[in-house]
Amino acid sequence: MAAAALAAFLLAASALASKYSREANEGLADAKRREVGEFRVVRLNQVWEKAQRLHLSAVKLAELHSDLKIQEKDELSWKKLKAEGLDEDGEKEAKLRRNLNVIMTKYGMNGKKDSYLTDTNYIKDGTESDTLDDPRLEKLWSKAKTSGKFSDEELDKLWREFKHHREKIREYNILLETVSRTEDIHKNVINPSEENLVKEEVLHNKHRELKDKLRSINQGFERLRKVSHQGYDATSEFEEPRVIDLWDMAKSANFTEKELESFREELKHFEAKIEKHHHYQKQLEISHEKLKHIEGTGDKEHLNRNREKYAMLEEKTKELGYKVKKHLQDLSSRISQGLQHNEL
User: How many Cα atoms sit within 13 Å of 231 on the Cβ side?
Assistant: First the structure.
């Protein structure tokens, strides 16, 4: 009996010690993470810290985190290439700078008063809380709203397409400005040398990137014009704007029928992944609003429970956001290669 009691005591003590050890380790891990930073690249940590000071919405912060994770992956890959001497013309480094510029502008952190700070949380936006920055888009949207061809759900869906198109135009304009500055520097070089001469191939790559984005914008506008006038086709395969874009461009690329069919199936999986991400975005927003409400009640136990739930939703939203953006990046790259092959 005494032996059994002793064994029970030792088991309980061991479990308690394990618990305290785990909590201590987790505390040390959190402290180390705060000390080291959220990202492995210093400037990305600076961007993240600045974003937190701006008090962006929960969903926008999660979206920014996913964008910065993609940027981090690309920057670490570039550092490896640079160490191996594989970015002699500096094109990959220049592209990284452009991408970071797009991110900074997208989230209102580029220091410009006319920064494109918009709420990417499509669930919260409604259809009257934002502008489209383009008279042609505003006119199409106004006609669609008053046409009677769309249910409320379809109008929300169409609004997401309009906003996605607006973001494509903004990204194109940022890239165009960057390329123009590069060309101006090239023209103003008095004594060109191998070190400061922008190679023709580099500019060609940038113009090809611009051309791909412009092609996507033109195809997207034609789709919006058609849908706005005719309504949604009941037989339409996809609903998510990014997936629709990819499918339209894939059909123009140099894919065989078998490759195109395989790509179609992959897009279906990608769309399901996006829908899951949207679901967690919605849950995160609801949890954030609930947390703010509970913070004013003084109920600590209730508050702690909801903080745990919010933290779980935040991490899941970040994780899914990263996976969606990485998958989008991979799909876009494959289509771009197919389109380039058409031009050869």
Answer: 10
